[in-house]
From TrEMBL, chain A:
Residue ranges constituting the ABC transmembrane type-1 domain according to the UniProt record: 65-253
InterPro entries, per the entry: MetI-like, MetI-like_sf
Cellular component GO terms, alphabetical: plasma membrane
Protein name: Polyamine ABC transporter permease
Subcellular location: Cell inner membrane; Cell membrane
Family per similarity comment: Belongs to the binding-protein-dependent transport system permease family.
Lineage: Bacteria, Bacillati, Actinomycetota, Actinomycetes, Micrococcales
Keyword list, A-Z: Cell inner membrane, Cell membrane, Membrane, Transmembrane, Transmembrane helix, Transport
Organism whose genome encodes this protein: Agromyces mediolanus (Corynebacterium mediolanum)
GO biological process: transmembrane transport
Transmembrane parts of this sequence: 12-34, 64-90, 97-121, 133-156, 177-199, 235-255
Topological category with respect to the lipid bilayer: Multi-pass membrane protein
From TrEMBL, chain B:
Record's subcellular location: Cell membrane
One GO cellular component term: plasma membrane
InterPro entries associated with the record: MetI-like (IPR000515), MetI-like_sf (IPR035906)
Taxonomy, superkingdom: Bacteria
Coiled-coil segments on the chain, per record: none
PROSITE patterns xref list: ABC_TM1
Name of the protein this chain belongs to: ABC transmembrane type-1 domain-containing protein
Claim: Transmembrane is one of the keywords in the record: yes
Keyword Transmembrane helix: yes
Length: 267, 284
């Protein structure tokens, strides 16, 4: 530690403030979820688990959870397969065409959320893709696929191309080379992309709020409708459950990070 | 290995994703934009309406101001935090990164709901302001509340690009400047700050663009009287079925977005914090 790597107390204090600002607002949902009365009063007056019971018994909430999981899983499958294939294709193709294709495929990530949503709605309305599962699937697929493309492409760019050639020269066919050599090398990127795809779909509110109908709603839409129309602490219970799951997901890499297959040398 | 056959395979691999995105995303965006130039009559009538309508202009300017404010405040909050992250050893760094990734991965609806609780009349923030002697400040249903909530929601998107850039800065340069007699402040200003500019640019553009297109948080925390452009687009489509009008505003937002992205350069990947933050965090 020399003079330039010392962190002053001002800097530390500022960072603590930012840390509190990052996390504390998430935590207010926890006490509300255990409220006794139908109120968002913080902190609540009495405690109960009524809202958790309601979350898992009220048909409105359970069907929204079911829809969100179904859409999320299907979108993850579609995005992971199509996105990984496309990233492999782009990687092999190279050059200007590949750059153009990448631009098109990541466009949904760049277009402002409300613009994507309204554009999707305006056309899906004509194609009768509103108020049904297929509409949600297609909208979430295009919104989530860029994340798979980006993570897999970034994995591919750090993979040694000689490995594939070595496998081919030893007589492995294209499929065998892919399954035995390429896929294991890019697996972390594919995994990260799949996780991104699921979270993107599970969390998506804007496009879904245009595509929804009272008959088919995802969980974020049910939360949106609930918070707009009523005071119902069930939304706090949902938020707490999601927060707990998110914490588990974020902590996961910390426990699995000690992989032997890290880069051979660190620059 | 025949290269023509290899190219054929490559095209076959990327085709399904390309078709899906072209048909179900690019075409809709194109069609919506096109309607703004074609309806009710071909020409720029939608854009003339847009710039002559006082309400629309007010909302656009308000959105730009809020987006700029959110960008500046997140930068001021995030820069020292990211700097400290890059300074610490692996253990503390992982912990600080965890504190950023938690909100980053958390549900937007849950976070917005949390802000409704925090900003409600007689809620914790109002209580804190009362303690400071600022009674009766309207938070829920005001531009102030929207700005506060958006700042917190978008903060991770500023920290992550900054952190990615800062971990790549060779700190020995600072030591060198220092050993040659530069004060700590001067070494920082003349050596470190310029090297961190790519992170500042990427984070700022990302937060600014996300702010422009933000809808959920302003819709639930703001008020219709002080709406942002997202709410305006929603009203045009949802209540008035005015797709050409919504298309014109969308084109304006798209143009601003593309111009900003071209200005910052460096490709899109710099704008996907998660992509770089997930794998290989062990280096350095």
């Amino acid at each position: 530690m020399d003079e330039t790597t010392r962190a002053g107390w001002g800097l530390r204090l500022w960072a603590i403030l930012v840390a509190v600002l990052l996390v504390a607002p998430l935590l207010v949902v926890v006490p509300i979820s255990f409220a006794e009365k139908r109120s968002f009063k913080f902190p609540p007056d009495g405690l109960s688990v009524d809202w958790y019971v309601n979350l898992f018994t009220d048909q409105r909430w359970t069907s929204a959870i079911g829809t969100s999981i179904l859409v999320g899983v299907l979108v993850t499958l579609i995005c992971t397969v199509l996105g990984t294939a496309a990233a492999l294709g782009i990687h092999r193709l190279g050059g200007r065409v590949a750059a153009l294709v990448t631009g098109v495929l990541v466009a949904p990530m760049i277009v402002p959320g409300i613009v994507s949503a309204v554009a999707i709605y305006s056309v899906y309305l004509r194609w009768q893709l509103t108020g049904n599962l297929l509409g949600f699937l297609l909208a979430h697929t295009v919104l989530a696929i860029p994340f798979v493309i980006v993570t897999v492409t970034s994995s591919l760019s750090t993979t040694d191309p000689m490995l594939e050639r070595a496998a081919a020269s030893l007589g492995a066919g294209p499929w065998r080379t892919f399954v035995r050599v390429t896929l294991p090398a890019i697996a972390p990127g594919v995994g990260a992309g799949a996780l991104f795809a699921f979270v993107t779909s599970f969390d998506e509110v804007v496009a879904a709020s245009f595509l929804q109908s009272p008959a088919i709603r995802t969980l974020p839409i049910e939360m949106f409708v609930s918070v707009t129309n009523e005071v119902d602490p069930t939304i706090a219970a949902v938020s707490t459950v999601i927060l707990a799951l998110t914490t588990a997901i974020v902590l996961l890499p910390a426990f699995t990070r000690r992989r032997p297959s890290q880069k051979a040398s660190s620059s | 290995m025949s290269s023509a056959r290899s190219r054929g395979w490559a095209v076959l691999l990327l085709l399904p994703a390309l078709v899906v995105v072209l048909v179900f995303f690019v075409y809709p965006v194109f069609a919506l934009s096109a309607r703004s130039f074609l309806e009710p009559t071909p020409g720029f009538s939608q854009y003339v309406d847009l710039v002559t309508n006082e309400t629309t202009v007010t909302i656009l300017v308000r959105t730009l101001v809020v987006a700029l404010l959110v960008t500046v405040v997140t930068l001021l909050l995030a820069y020292p935090y990211a700097y400290l992250m890059s300074l610490f050893g692996p253990g503390m760094r992982t912990f600080l990164l965890f504190l950023v990734l938690l909100p980053f991965w958390s549900s937007l609806m849950a976070r917005t709901f949390a802000w409704i609780v925090l900003l409600q009349p007689s809620g914790p923030v109002a209580g804190f302001l009362g303690f400071l002697g600022l009674d009766g400040v309207k938070l829920l249903g005001s531009q102030l509340g929207v700005t506060i909530a958006m700042t917190q929601v978008l903060l991770p998107f500023m920290v992550l690009p900054l952190f990615n850039t800062m971990t790549g800065i060779d700190r020995r340069l600072l030591s060198a400047a220092h050993s040659m007699g530069a004060s700590r402040f001067r070494a920082f200003r003349t050596v470190y700050l310029p090297l961190s500019v790519p992170g500042v640019a990427a984070g700022s553009v990302l937060v600014f663009i996300l702010s422009l297109g933000f809808w959920v948080t302003p819709r639930l925390i703001g008020s219709p009287q002080q709406s942002l452009v997202g709410q305006l687009i929603e009203t045009k489509v949802g209540k008035l079925l005015d797709f050409p009008g919504a298309g014109a505003i969308s084109v304006v937002l798209l143009v601003i977005t593309v111009v900003l992205l071209l200005a910052v350069g460096g490709g899109v990947r710099a704008l996907v914090p998660g992509a770089k933050t997930d794998g290989g965090r062990d280096d350095g």
